[in-house]
Write a structure and sequence with these properties.
The chain has 169 residues and is α+β, with helices and mostly antiparallel strands. The chain has 6 helices and 11 strands. The strands form 3 sheets. Strands 2-1-11-5-6 form a 5-stranded mixed β-sheet. The chain has a 4-stranded antiparallel β-sheet with strand order 3-4-8-9, with no helix packed on it. The chain binds the ligand Nc1nc2c(c(=O)[nH]1)N[C@H]1C(S)=C(S)[C@@H](COP(=O)(O)O)O[C@H]1N2 and molybdenum atom. Ligand MTE binds next to helix 6. The site of molybdenum atom (MO) has 3 residues, from helix 6.
C-alpha cells in the first residue's frame, strides 16, 4: 500500500519533470517578449514593461530573411521586424539591450532596424524554433546580404537567441 502510493507519487513527479523539460526544450516554447525601458506603452501592473503575448507577436506583419549564420546553414527565418515591435510599444531611445533565457545580454543600435531590417525570428524554414535550438526568439540580421559588415566576432554577438526581453535605452 505504502509502496504503491510512493511509487505512484514518484512516477507522477517524474512525469511532471519530463513534461517540464519537454515543454521547455523539445517543443517550441510559447512566445512572449517583455519590452521595458524607454517605452510609451506598458501593460503590466507596475507600469514598467509592455508584455507581448504569443498572439500579439504572431499578429505582427511577418518578415523573412534568408541567410546563413555562424551556427546555421543558409535558411529562411521568419518573424516580426524589430522595428514593428518597437513601434508597437512606442520605443523612444537609440539602443536596445537584448536579454535572454541564458542571461546573455547584448546592446544593439536601433539604427540597425533601418539599415538591415532586423527580425525577431520565431521560425526557421517554416518550423518554430525550439529553446534548445535558438528559440523561442532569435535576432536575425541579413548576413549573406552584408557579408563584410555582418560577419566576424563582433557581428556574431548580435545574433542573439533565446530572447526573453528588450530594454530600450
Ligand atoms: N542567447 C545567447 N545568444 C548569444 C550568445 C549567448 O551566450 N546566449 N552569445 C553571443 C556571442 S557574444 C557570440 S560571439 C555568439 C557566440 O556564439 P558561440 O557560443 O557559438 O561562440 O553568439 C551570440 N548570441
Ligand atoms: Mo562574442
Amino acid at each position: 500500500m505504502g509502496y504503491t502510493r510512493k511509487g505512484a507519487r514518484w512516477i507522477s513527479c517524474l512525469a511532471i519533470a519530463l513534461g517540464a523539460i519537454g515543454a521547455g526544450l523539445a517543443h517550441a516554447a510559447t512566445l512572449s517578449l517583455d519590452v521595458g525601458g524607454k517605452v510609451a506603452a506598458t501593460n503590466d501592473p507596475s507600469h514598467t514593461v509592455y508584455h507581448l503575448t504569443e498572439a500579439q507577436l504572431l499578429a505582427l506583419p511577418v518578415h523573412s530573411i534568408t541567410t546563413s549564420t555562424t551556427w546555421t546553414a543558409r535558411s529562411t527565418f521568419t518573424g516580426p521586424s524589430l522595428a514593428d515591435i518597437l513601434k508597437l510599444v512606442g520605443a523612444h531611445g537609440s539602443q536596445i539591450e537584448v536579454h535572454t533565457l541564458d542571461d546573455y545580454t547584448e546592446t544593439i543600435p536601433i539604427s540597425d532596424c533601418d539599415r538591415y531590417g532586423v527580425i525577431v525570428a520565431y521560425s526557421m524554414n517554416g518550423k518554430r524554433l525550439k529553446v534548445s535550438d535558438f528559440g523561442p526568439l532569435f535576432l536575425i540580421y541579413p548576413r549573406d546580404a552584408f557579408p563584410t559588415e555582418l560577419s566576424g566576432a563582433a557581428a556574431d554577438s548580435k545574433f542573439v537567441w533565446q530572447i526573453k526581453g528588450l530594454i530600450v535605452k
